[in-house]
């Protein structure tokens, strides 16, 4: 089934070239089915790229999915045009009276700050509290995952001595969890962050499940036992070349950083990287949409 996006969204032609099933709004309203309504809080600087990455993964489902985009009202992004935000985005105030079947909160380049020092942290707190009554299940990515662990479960982060960047092996440890159905016993996943959530606190928290583990990167998938929150500490939505672009960006800033681990063929930065986590990403998003959202959300929120 298709994903319903605005006709002029920049992600649309990219997805259509990939043969992703896209449907226009005027056709979607004629479908005699109950679509899933998702809300995406996009905190990433390159919003158009993040839109494409996430919509691609949300499209691989037998369910019709409608997506609303919101950005922070208390912080204005410098890497996206004002016209793009005005055309495709709303703020939390515009949607706070609605209910959503699922929500995604992305990462953000604010790891170096304590949570309370982030300009839009009070707004984040308001949104995360709102999800408890207005969203069936929320998916949090990277910094968004750390923010959720901190706010909902009191688990803080710690700064790493060196940034973790690369592709790392993970071992599935919760084989019967619905979110992990069909995922290999061992799998590769990309990480890119300067901080870690406190490992021991996650493992010992009575309301959380670590679904996998990695000796180098720690857990990738963490879920609340009530299935209301899923935390992804890495970036399974990334394209094959995203880590390389981040590596080049950091070098241009004068940051002394090693090349991403286990990323380039033969560890040669001159060779293009391959996407070795695509199937994992599609399956995880499909499982979340099916088991944590569709199977649990009320047909009529009223």
Automatic annotation (TrEMBL):
<dbReference type="GO" id="GO:0005737">
    <property type="term" value="C:cytoplasm"/>
</dbReference>
<keyword id="KW-0808">Transferase</keyword>
<dbReference type="Pfam" id="PF04204">
    <property type="entry name" value="HTS"/>
</dbReference>
<dbReference type="GO" id="GO:0008899">
    <property type="term" value="F:homoserine O-succinyltransferase activity"/>
</dbReference>
<feature type="binding site">
    <location>
        <position position="192"/>
    </location>
    <ligand>
        <name>substrate</name>
    </ligand>
</feature>
<feature type="active site" description="Proton acceptor">
    <location>
        <position position="235"/>
    </location>
</feature>
<dbReference type="GO" id="GO:0019281">
    <property type="term" value="P:L-methionine biosynthetic process from homoserine via O-succinyl-L-homoserine and cystathionine"/>
</dbReference>
<feature type="site" description="Important for acyl-CoA specificity">
    <location>
        <position position="111"/>
    </location>
</feature>
<keyword id="KW-0486">Methionine biosynthesis</keyword>
<dbReference type="InterPro" id="IPR005697">
    <property type="entry name" value="HST_MetA"/>
</dbReference>
<dbReference type="GO" id="GO:0004414">
    <property type="term" value="F:homoserine O-acetyltransferase activity"/>
</dbReference>
<feature type="binding site">
    <location>
        <position position="249"/>
    </location>
    <ligand>
        <name>substrate</name>
    </ligand>
</feature>
<feature type="site" description="Important for substrate specificity">
    <location>
        <position position="192"/>
    </location>
</feature>
<keyword id="KW-0012">Acyltransferase</keyword>
<dbReference type="InterPro" id="IPR029062">
    <property type="entry name" value="Class_I_gatase-like"/>
</dbReference>
<protein>
    <recommendedName>
        <fullName>Homoserine O-acetyltransferase</fullName>
        <ecNumber>2.3.1.31</ecNumber>
    </recommendedName>
</protein>
<dbReference type="InterPro" id="IPR033752">
    <property type="entry name" value="MetA_family"/>
</dbReference>
<feature type="active site">
    <location>
        <position position="237"/>
    </location>
</feature>
<comment type="pathway">
    <text>Amino-acid biosynthesis; L-methionine biosynthesis via de novo pathway; O-acetyl-L-homoserine from L-homoserine: step 1/1.</text>
</comment>
<feature type="active site" description="Acyl-thioester intermediate">
    <location>
        <position position="142"/>
    </location>
</feature>
<feature type="binding site">
    <location>
        <position position="163"/>
    </location>
    <ligand>
        <name>substrate</name>
    </ligand>
</feature>
<comment type="function">
    <text>Transfers an acetyl group from acetyl-CoA to L-homoserine, forming acetyl-L-homoserine.</text>
</comment>
<keyword id="KW-0028">Amino-acid biosynthesis</keyword>
<keyword id="KW-0963">Cytoplasm</keyword>
<comment type="similarity">
    <text>Belongs to the MetA family.</text>
</comment>
């Amino acid at each position: 089934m298709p994903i319903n996006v605005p006709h002029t969204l920049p992600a649309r032609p990219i997805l259509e070239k990939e043969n992703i099933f896209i449907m226009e709004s005027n056709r979607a309203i004629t479908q005699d089915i109950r679509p899933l309504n998702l809300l995406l809080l996009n905190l990433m600087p390159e919003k158009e790229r993040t839109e494409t990455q996430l919509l691609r993964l949300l499209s691989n489902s037998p369910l019709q999915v409608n997506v609303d985009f919101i950005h922070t009202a208390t912080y204005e992004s410098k890497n996206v045009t004002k016209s793009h935000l005005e055309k495709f985005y709303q703020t939390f105030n515009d949607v706070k009276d609605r209910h959503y079947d699922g929500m995604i909160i992305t990462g953000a380049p604010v790891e170096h700050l304590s949570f309370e020092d982030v300009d839009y942290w009070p707004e984040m707190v308001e949104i995360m509290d709102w999800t408890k009554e207005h969203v069936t299940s929320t998916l949090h990515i990277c910094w968004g995952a750390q923010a959720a662990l901190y706010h909902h479960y009191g688990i803080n982060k710690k700064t790493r001595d060196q940034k973790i960047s690369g592709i790392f092996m993970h071992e599935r440890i919760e084989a019967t969890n619905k979110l992990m159905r069909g995922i290999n016993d061992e799998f590769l996943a990309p990480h890119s962050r300067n901080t870690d959530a406190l490992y021991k606190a996650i493992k010992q928290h009575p309301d959380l499940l670590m679904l996998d583990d990695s000796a180098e990167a720690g857990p990738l998938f963490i879920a609340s036992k009530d299935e209301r929150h899923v935390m992804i500490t890495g970036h399974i939505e990334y394209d094959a070349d995203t880590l390389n672009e981040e590596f080049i960006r950091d070098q241009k800033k004068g940051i002394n950083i090693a090349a991403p681990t286990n990323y380039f063929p033969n560890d040669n930065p001159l060779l293009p990287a391959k996407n070795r986590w695509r199937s994992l990403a599609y399956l995880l998003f499909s499982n979340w949409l099916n088991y944590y959202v569709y199977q649990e959300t009320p047909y009529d929120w009223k």
